[in-house]
Amino acid sequence: MSSDVLTVFPTDPYWQPSRVGGTRAAALAAELAPVGRRTAPVPTEPRWHEGVVFVDCGSNFEAVGCRLCGTPLELTWWSQAVDARAVGGFEDLEVLMPCCAAVHSLNDLDYRWPCGFARFDVPIWNPERDWLEEWDLAAIGKVLGHPVRQVRAHY
Ligand SMILES: [Zn+2]
């Protein structure tokens, strides 16, 4: 049985909310994207991570490119860069781009579908809806106290 996970998380990969803010934001996310009934429902709960984690898009992953010069990146280069930063718990996300020699954050690469990095996230398992709208994200961000973005994964 495959699953879809819609994950909402702060735009700043290092930022973490208070317990109250994070819990309220997760409750609002659960209301805006109710969990579907086609599988045993997983409750939508906020997660605070000790270090930064990669928020992947599962089999929705198609490609990754440089946002600065538009060059598609070799997946082997990208996965080595991610593995190297993972050793340090992603304390440092900056990499030297092989295409244009700029220093850029792994968080800001051009991922298709979107992926990201976070120390706090709210995964919504098998939501009944597709992507959240801009105003939904704005509402969650307001409750959280920081702007949020979303990643949609398929496993
Ligand atoms: Zn580049």
Protein model, in words:
This protein is α+β, with helices and mostly antiparallel strands and 155 residues long. It has one domain. 25% of the residues lie in helices and 29% in strands. It is built from three helices and eight strands. The protein has a four-stranded antiparallel β-sheet with strand order 2-7-1-8. Strands 3-6 form a two-stranded antiparallel ribbon. α1 packs antiparallel against α3. The radius of gyration is 16 Å and the shape is globular. The relative contact order is 0.35. The site of zinc ion has 8 residues, from loops.
Features:
two-stranded antiparallel sheet; 155 residues; binds zinc ion; four-stranded antiparallel sheet; alpha+beta; globular
Q: Which residue ranges are poorly predicted, with pLDDT under 50 across at least 5 consecutive positions?
A: none
What's the total number of strands? 8
Fraction in helix: 10-25%
The tally of helices reads: 3
Compute the number of structural domains.
Answer: 1
Outline: globular
Instruction: Identify the quaternary structure here.
Output: single chain
Q: How many angstroms separate the termini?
A: 9 Å
The chain-level mean pLDDT equals 95
Please summarize the sheet with the most strands.
4 strands, antiparallel
What ligand species are in this complex?
Answer: zinc ion
% residues in beta strands: 25-35%
Cross-sheet strand order for the largest sheet: 2-7-1-8
By secondary-structure content and strand pairing, the structural class works out as alpha+beta
Order of helices and strands: EHEEHEEEEHE
Radius of gyration: 16 Å
